[in-house]
Design brief:
The protein is α+β, with helices and mostly antiparallel strands. Helix content is 54%, strand content 7%. It contains 14 helices and seven strands. The strands form two sheets. Strands 2-4-5-7-6 form a five-stranded mixed β-sheet. Strands 1-3 form a two-stranded antiparallel ribbon. The radius of gyration is 24 Å and the shape is elongated. It starts with a helix and ends with a helix.
């Protein structure tokens, strides 16, 4: 029965992850199959025990059930070790890693949630931080200019990718229903624009402070066209945003609309940036939920995990 159910999942996985190595698919298949047949171990025939089957094997009779059972256990063990070292290399803290391993062992939800995220636009989950620049010369092809709708802009000309602009409108309409106005005060920044921003900060505050405040060109999430810096009532960007109605509304509701706070409070050691209560990245609803469910709402951890997952999958498929 477990294989029957696994057989339903396998084509889904293959569709979502074209080119995935057989090893990973087999491991996923095994996890999914095993989790569908709990509490009994997969393929152990009713009434039989491992000792019975070992006895058969000892008499020189090949036992298909035993080898099937053991091979599924081997695959599960292989997957557990694959996931464990991946979490480690992705820099996930031990307590969080243990919870993720437990969730992955409990049922297929974690892997399926991950695969749903991976099946979307890769720029929703691409890791862009101080160590991981965007592809050289990257500029989104579908930028649109924000026009005031349910939200306001602090000045004309801000641009976002279409998907983020649409979501911003939807989110701002919901905020407005609650009496809150969202103001977009910074959005897409080209590589060239970021050169100006960063250089100005270096001139004004020195390189060390500039690196806490702003990304070097090519390393800014703003270049994705999926990020908005939200302004306070006067459109200004700063720490005071957190205490405004918009700041509080975003902190509670942004995730529902697929927006994620990139640089949360007390996470500078993880993100490389000080708390920026105003800087939200559109990651889509699936990934926003994934970040909340397994990574304590810390976008950076989830993106590091996905980055490592994709890197290994690509390496294995070569
Ligand atoms: Zn920003």
């Amino acid at each position: 029965m477990s294989r029957l159910k696994g057989g339903v999942f396998l084509p889904i996985i293959e569709t979502m992850t074209p080119g995935y190595p057989l090893f990973v698919l087999a491991a996923l298949f095994s996890v999914l199959a095993a989790s569908c047949s709990k509490p009994a171990p997969p393929s152990l025939p009713e009434g039989a025990t491992l000792i019975d089957m070992s006895a058969d094997a000892a008499q020189g009779e090949p036992n298909a059930n035993l080898s099937q059972y053991l091979s599924e256990r081997d695959q599960e063990a292989a997957f557990d070790s694959f996931l464990g070292s991946l979490l480690d290399d992705a820099g996930i803290p031990p307590d969080m890693a243990r919870r993720i391993e437990a969730a992955a062992a409990e049922g297929p939800s974690f892997i399926l949630d991950l695969l749903v995220c991976l099946s979307g636009d890769p720029f929703l989950w691409i890791l862009v931080d101080k160590a991981h620049p965007l592809p050289d010369g990257y500029a989104p092809a579908d930028l649109v200019t924000l026009s005031e709708g349910s939200y306001e802009v602090n000045r004309p000309g801000h641009r976002l990718r279409q998907v983020a602009a649409d979501s911003l409108e939807e989110m701002a309409a919901a905020a407005r229903t609650g009496g809150v106005t969202l103001i977009a005060s910074s959005a897409y920044r080209s590589y060239e624009y970021q050169v100006d921003v960063y250089d100005r900060n270096v001139r004004e505050m020195g390189r060390e402070a500039a690196d806490r405040e702003s990304a070097r060109p090519g390393y800014s999430q703003h270049q994705l066209g999926l990020v908005v810096d939200f302004g306070a009532e006067d459109g200004s960007i700063g720490d005071h945003f957190a205490q405004t109605p918009a700041g509080r509304w975003m902190a509670s509701n942004a995730g529902t609309f697929g927006w994620s706070l990139s640089f949360p409070r007390n996470r500078e050691a993880v993100t490389g940036y000080r708390w920026e209560s105003w800087h939200y990245r559109y990651v889509g609803r699936d990934l926003a939920a994934f970040i909340d469910a397994y990574f304590d709402g810390v976008q950076q951890y989830a993106l590091q995990f996905i980055h490592e997952w994709v890197k290994r999958s690509e390496a294995l498929s070569k």
